[in-house]
Inverse folding.
């Protein structure tokens, strides 16, 4: 049982770290002359850097809010798990922890979908590729969802 709990905690922390990295670092969309993330859109033209902040569109603010909410909900789920681990009755399920983690996964999925659909308004129409932060956000979604489902299914034993 201890190995199972340790595995679940590691899965949860991995999802939380991926959410943090994908929200903070600047690589959602990249090309040789620019990079774009949730906070800035930086372009280099003739060796001059120009960065626009993310306050230009409602959709990017929605993505920012959803990603921050996913971090908050995932962190709260981790704290709730440890609280429930010591206070939950034997045979009880970790429903609240699982619900918070599933909400975190849905928030990151929604944010990534909105960014995918709307990023052409934010990124110049040149050749670009999705960066590592964007990929990490999509990887964090199933990890958070799976850990949320495991919490819902998991029963506290002796």
């Amino acid at each position: 049982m201890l190995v199972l709990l340790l595995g679940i905690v590691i899965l949860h922390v991995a999802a939380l770290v991926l959410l943090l990295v994908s929200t903070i670092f600047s690589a959602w969309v990249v090309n040789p002359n620019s990079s774009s993330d949730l906070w800035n859109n930086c372009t280099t033209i003739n060796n001059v850097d120009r960065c626009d902040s993310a306050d230009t569109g409602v959709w990017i603010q929605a993505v920012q809010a959803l990603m921050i909410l996913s971090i908050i909900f995932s962190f709260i789920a981790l704290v709730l798990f440890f609280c429930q681990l010591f206070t939950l009755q034997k045979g009880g399920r970790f429903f609240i922890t699982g619900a918070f983690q599933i909400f975190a996964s849905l928030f990151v999925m929604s944010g990534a979908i909105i960014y995918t659909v709307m990023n052409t308004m934010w990124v110049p129409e040149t050749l670009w590729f999705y960066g590592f932060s964007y990929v990490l956000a999509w990887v964090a979604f199933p990890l958070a969802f799976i850990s949320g489902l495991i919490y819902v299914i998991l029963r506290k034993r002796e």
Q: What stands out?
A: The chain is about 65% helix and 15% strand. The mean pLDDT is 86.
